[in-house]
Specification:
The protein is mostly helical and about 80 residues long. It has a single domain, classed as 434 Repressor (Amino-terminal Domain) (Orthogonal Bundle), CATH 1.10.260. Helices cover about 45% and strands about 5% of the residues. The protein contains four helices and two strands. It has a two-stranded antiparallel sheet with strand order 1-2. Helix 1 packs across helix 3 and helix 2 crosses helix 3. The radius of gyration is 13 Å and the shape is globular.
Length: about 80
């Protein structure tokens, strides 16, 4: 049997912005949904930071509930500095 690698959702600046636009939310409203600051949403959307940890899971949950299609990258890719 082939070994499967875990896949991790890749939330880059474009996908965070696209999700927010899909939901018709302001940065402030999205921050409230995620329990974070508006500045954090802005930093994600400008590529200054990437979501990580619980924020990645919350974004995935929100996206799935909203019917938003998003991609995934093999674990280890798109790792870097993050806030969330």
């Amino acid at each position: 049997m082939a070994e499967r690698k875990k896949r991790k959702v890749a939330w880059d600046a474009g996908s965070v912005h696209a999700l927010r636009a899909h939901l018709s939310l302001t940065q402030e409203q999205m921050a409230e949904e995620l329990g974070t600051r508006q500045q954090t949403i802005s930093e994600w959307e400008t590529g200054q930071y990437q979501p990580r940890g619980a924020s990645v899971r919350l974004l995935a949950l929100i996206a799935e509930r909203a019917g938003f299609v998003y991609g995934a990258a093999p674990e280890g890719e798109s790792e870097g500095k993050g806030e969330g």
